[in-house]
Write a structure and sequence with these properties.
The complex is a heterodimer. In chain A, 24% of the residues lie in helices and 27% in strands. Chain A has helices at 19-22, 57-74, 95-105, and strands at residues 7-10, 30-33, 36-42, 82-89, 112-117, 126-133. In chain A, helix 2 (57-74) runs parallel beside helix 3 (95-105). In chain A, strand 4, helix 3 and strand 5 form a beta-alpha-beta unit. Helix content of chain B is 31%, strand content 23%. Chain B has helices spanning 16-33, 54-64, and strands at residues 41-48, 71-76, 85-91. Chain B has a three-stranded mixed sheet, covered by helices on one side. The two termini of chain B are 18 Å apart. The chains are: A alpha+beta, B alpha+beta. Chains A and B meet through strand 2, strand 3 and strand 6 of A and strand 1, helix 2 and strand 2 of B.
Chain lengths: 139, 93
């Protein structure tokens, strides 16, 4: 039985990055359960305006990974605690450029990762989700 | 999971809204059979055949998760079997 594990919602400290709340979408930004954090698919949202940054793919991936960092740090975790990532690109030709940006953020021991090409919402060129280890568990 | 009629076991092809309704109804039943429930779902992945149908999926989806909904990712994809929607989840037992 895993009934001892608690399930709680994780929200970004910066309310501009709370996409689901701001757009009234039926998902939470993230869920913590036990020592794990599950983040919803995240895109290139501008942390100042809350709008979308739909420029070149590198300029979409960087803010997406920075937003993911913010979400994880809001929950006492961080990029270095990510276990598994799923990257969805709108165009498979962006794969090499995505990898180039990836190395900036994950210079050593990068997380397990799967990348595929699918249709994305809001004109996003990229959407990234992850499973990460939480910080010290309050539960 | 894809839309299956729980009585006949046949594929229950329909609109995106109808398939979403059927899938989440079946998912709830399956989770409850394992002592869990939709309220214990942590993460959901939704695939729909066209992102133009995003709102048709969402309008039904939100009825099943009225408070503290799970983390979620939605993408458009080519689905096998003629389905319009496929949904997977990770849940606490």
């Amino acid at each position: 039985m895993t009934g001892r594990l608690l399930r709680g919602v994780i929200e970004p400290v910066n309310p501009k990055l709370n996409v689901s709340r701001n757009a009234n979408l039926p998902h939470s930004p993230g869920i913590r359960v036990g020592d794990y954090i599950f983040l919803s698919g995240m895109g290139p949202v501008d942390p100042v305006t809350g709008g979308r940054n739909l420029g070149p793919i590198a300029e979409q991936i960087r803010p997406t990974l920075r937003n993911m960092t913010h979400m994880l740090e809001s929950a006492g975790s961080g990029l270095h605690r990510i276990v598994k990532m799923t990257v969805v690109l709108a165009d498979s030709r962006d794969f090499d450029e995505m990898n180039r940006v990836w190395r900036e953020f994950f210079p050593t021991d990068p997380p397990a990762r799967t990348t595929c090409t699918l249709q994305l919402s809001n004109g996003n060129g990229v959407e990234i989700e992850c499973i990460a280890l939480a910080g010290e568990s309050p539960f | 999971m894809a839309a299956i009629d729980p009585v006949t076991g046949e594929l229950a092809h329909g609109t995106v809204a109808a398939e979403t309704q059927q899938i989440l109804t079946n998912m709830a039943e399956l989770l409850e059979a394992a002592g869990s429930s939709l309220a214990k779902v942590v993460k959901v992945g939704v695939l729909i055949y066209s992102m133009l149908e995003y709102e048709n999926m969402n309008s039904v989806y939100r009825e099943f998760f009225p408070v503290d909904p799970p983390a979620r990712t939605v993408c458009g994809a080519g689905l096998i079997g003629g389905h319009k929607v496929e949904i997977e989840c990770v849940a606490l037992a």
